[in-house]
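Lecture 7 notes: from sequence to structure.

We start with a single chain of 498 residues. Read the sequence below before looking at the structure.
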Amino acid sequence: MDFAISGGHEATTEAAFEVLKAGGNAFDAAIAAFMVSFVAEPFMSSAGAGAFANVFTASGKAKVYDFFCQTPKKKRSISEVEFYPVEVDFGEEKEYFHIGRGSTAVPGSIAGIYALHEQHGTMPLKELAQAAIRYAKEGITINNFQRLDMELLENIARATPETRAMFCQNNQLLNIGDQMFMPQLADFLDYMSHEGKDAFYQGEVAKSLVDDHKQNGGFLTLEDLKEYKVIVREPLQLPYKGKTILTNPLPSTGGSILVLALAYLKELAQAKEPLSSKFVLNLHQAFLQVEQGGKLPEELQNRLQLLFDNLKNNQASEKRGSTSHFNIIDKWNNAISLTMTIGEGSATYIKGTDIHLNNMLGEAPLLPNGFHSWLPNVRLSSMMAPTIVLNDRGKPEIILGSGGSSRIPSVILQVLHYLIDYKLSLEDAINLPRLHVSQKMLFMEEGFQFDEGKVNISQKIKRFKGTSLFFGGVHAIFKDQNGLFALGDDRRDGVAIL
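Now the structure, written as tokens:
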């Protein structure tokens, strides 16, 4: 085939496939896939959440569409806000999130769909919505990863009557092979596909959401919804060994961390063998330098400016130069890398719609100064970093992204490191073990030939047995003179279609 798709669920990728088969472009396919993800990946994606889309057109135009969540315009007294913690146990590692109405920021998913469609779509939106409507009405079969996701997030799946009605049957979590239905979401998507984005941001749906927040401890107002805008940004670019990395720019930090770490990494003498002690130390040094510099956007901005000033002044030497994701490239060479997240979900819904609302205001990695430290009416930062790599002719060569919270930049970098620096196959680049560096801990999957007795690592080392979804799910497409390759990460039951 002359197109490729990789993503986090069979239904999501299949929806994209059907659109491409019908003559739609990569952006039409992405819109259809994104809507299906609301049903197929309900703890990762939602009409009540947000996303980023890294877009590269056949004509050579590169843009990043930011339809991530926005902070509300007004705060309330914390004593009035519904906001409480839940634990997510990865087995090897635990994380804590906060849910409730007070954890929900202004959603951007629906606005993003319309922005992509208005700028790049070729097929009617009502046609692109049909797959999602069908799955929502007829049900989607719970697969292995959905079941695992529900087990991990069981404290959220059981948190409210609404989540129990969606994710449980006879007081038990839905199991592999069970059907999950979202009939009210089907009705909403049908209505929205005819009426436009105002079907979400104004009218009865908006009023229902706002009234619920006013009465029950949320922040969102009609003004918040009506004034939400998609922001179209220039991608952050880095020349890297004859290629060009295009990724998510500030104010989101994921792409900036990726670029900074890559810039540090290429200054180090490359390890002869991947997985060796030298390989680990190089990654450790690159990530630790970024980590010690802080992750706030204003701090990264200064460091990026220094980085690019240095690149400009040394052009001669520079020639060497619960989140889900999907990638699509079509026969015209249009490419899109889209990462979406609901956080883990707030365990609250918009009445009568089956739309699960995000918990972005309860995500610690997005709020480095602490919960409730957010400023009103600003676009939230994110670790999401949908990325496209251009070859030396300016054509898409690698399209990739990942879920994985704060691990997103490190896992994307490692796949790029394997592909670009070690020229490994796409299969090896995704399947080989990963690590993640924080100031207190070095997390490592099994498989590194790393003798900690012979090297100086200041952090404690946490070793995982085998691979783990803690290290994301890097779904990717690779295109070179030998053809197209696509792969979904087994860590999150990824799927690819060629």
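The chain has two domains: 4-232+332-366, 236-325+389-497. Keep this in mind for problem set 3.
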